[in-house]
Design goal:
Layout: E1 6-13, E2 17-24, E3 42-44, E4 54-60, E5 66-69
Antiparallel strand pairs: 1-4, 2-3, 2-5
Length: 72
């Protein structure tokens, strides 16, 4: 799984609402060998997954770390 792009990959979130992409380790500004695979913001819905009360679908590049957060 780690060596492939993933689209519509479902992960858990602690609450519903818009989660903004704050960090994507696959971005070009971290080096010329990165693919810059897009990881857009995600809208989490009230659907339990992975022990968390909400979930959302994300896109993520291979070997990528993504950090999401909500503005308060």
């Amino acid at each position: 799984m780690a060596n492939q792009n993933r689209e519509c990959y479902v992960i858990g979130f602690p609450r519903a609402g818009l989660w903004k992409t704050r960090f994507n380790s696959d971005a070009y500004n971290y080096g010329p060998n990165f693919t810059n695979y897009p990881t857009p913001d995600v809208e989490a819905q009230e659907e339990i997954i992975e022990g968390l009360p909400c979930s959302g679908k994300i896109s993520i590049g291979p070997y990528t770390v993504v950090i999401f957060s909500q503005a308060e």
